[in-house]
Amino acid sequence: MYINTLFWKQNPKGAKTRRRKEKKMQRNKKSLVLSCLITTTMLLLIAAVDSTKDTSVRLELAHRETLWPNPLSRIEDITGADHKRHSLISQKRMYKGGVKMPLGSGIDYRTAQYFTEIRVGTPAKKFRVVVDTGSELTWVNCRYRGRGKGKAENRRVFRAEESKSFRTVGCSTQTCKVDLMNLFSLSTCPTPSTPCSYDYRYAEGSAQGVFAKETITVGLTSGRKARLHGLLIGCSSSFSGQSFTGADGVLGLAYSDFSFTSTATSLFGAKFSYCLVDHLSHKNVSNYLIFGSSSSATKNAPGRTTPLDLSVIPPFYAINVIGISLGDDMLNIPAKVWDATAGGGTILDSGTSLTLLSEAAYKPVVTGLARYLVELKRVKPEGVPIEYCFSSKAGFNESKLPQLTFHMKGGARFEPHRKSYLVDAAPGVKCLGFMSAGTPATNVVGNIMQQNYLWEFDLKASTLSFAPSSCT
């Protein structure tokens, strides 16, 4: 104290400097004390959480190599996953706009399905495939290592070994043994290099072959072409079923990690849409299946957007139907018919032609509509598996039928065109386009009921929007 006073008296200017330094030191001491208090408080809080354990956080980090049974399957899975990821990154940077694929009726090929064309392999070969929102697997009629029917019944054949980008999935891989089980992969695996095989089942028919990764070339809305690399496809050496008449394969559009939808929406955005032309239209009449672009026709459409349930009946696109009305009359249908948790529920399916309803919904619908058709003679045409068919040779004004309406959650109302539920089954014969699915059962809104409507699936928002359209 004495020294400081003397110094100030002898050198006032120096004393001021010394005083400023002392104040700074005092501030630093206060900051240090505050810092210590904060640190102490944090340590006390951590100790309060668990005073008996180490205060650090430790998470085990393991490389995925530990999951593979042998080096060959490990390398195949690693390179496959990495190539696919890099391909998606590259393609996202490269392509602008959306995918645009022609979509037409299969009436000229004697089937009630809708077709599009895809180009498979390198060099790319064109194939006509069924557009199926209820199928996970995209496959083509294929010949590989001498197996396959080859070209028959006007079908094209994909010769896998002539494609530079064709790579089979090994039967010993995690992909085959675990990931593809829901796609009916088989357990046959004589050697690790043997391709992963499948027996993919449909409601009617099946397809057998081997899984592979391949390049598919598609058109873009900009007019350019895009090559989508590393897509999972099926190389089908044999298949059966009426649905495949006139087709070279199937374009799987279900909500699945392995469907074409999964890759297309990851590249071009989480929306896809289609508009189904009249099912009796010839092949020169078509519309488009589009991925990525949003349609203005479904925007701001009151009463035409409903939640899309993507987890309740996987891998199908489930909608929340809550009732059906004819005209102004709501039909007496038990609520459990529409409850997916009770074995019911409803899906939208482009791969099913007619509309299937649980028996408790089917009876009120067909008997209610039949009351308006009493002037027509009831007939049973050979080969037509529909219960309510009528002779229409004398002509019939469809406007006499009441408007059938599907009422959906959120207030949406789907009002199909009358020709969609009183369908032309044969010359001079009209049938109610419904079949009983039994009890309990999943209700299916088929492609004929969907015709002349634009449907837009928003997988990010989990919504379905729709609007009537000529689709031309």
Question: How would you explain this protein's 3D organization?
Answer:
The chain is α+β, with helices and mostly antiparallel strands and 472 residues long. It has two domains: 68-289, Cathepsin D, subunit A, domain 1 (Beta Barrel), CATH 2.40.70; 295-468, Acid Proteases (Cathepsin D, subunit A, domain 1). It is 22% helix and 30% strand. The chain contains seven helices and 28 strands.
Please name the defining characteristics of this protein.
globular, 7 helices, 2 domains, 22% helix, six-stranded mixed β-barrel, Cathepsin D, subunit A, domain 1, 472 residues
SSE topology sketch:
Blueprint: H1 2-10, H2 12-49, H3 71-94, E1 99-105, E2 114-120, E3 125-132, E4 139-143, E5 158-159, E6 167-168, H4 174-179, E7 197-201, E8 206-219, E9 225-240, E10 249-252, H5 260-268, E11 271-275, E12 286-291, E13 305-309, E14 317-319, E15 321-326, E16 329-330, E17 346-348, E18 355-357, H6 359-370, E19 378-379, E20 389-391, E21 404-408, E22 413-414, E23 422-426, E24 429-432, E25 434-436, E26 443-445, H7 447-450, E27 453-458, E28 463-468
Parallel strand pairs: 3-10, 4-5, 4-9, 17-26, 18-25
Antiparallel strand pairs: 1-2, 1-12, 2-3, 2-8, 4-10, 6-8, 7-8, 8-9, 11-12, 11-27, 13-14, 13-28, 14-17, 15-16, 15-21, 19-20, 20-24, 21-22, 23-24, 27-28
Helix pairs in contact: 1-2
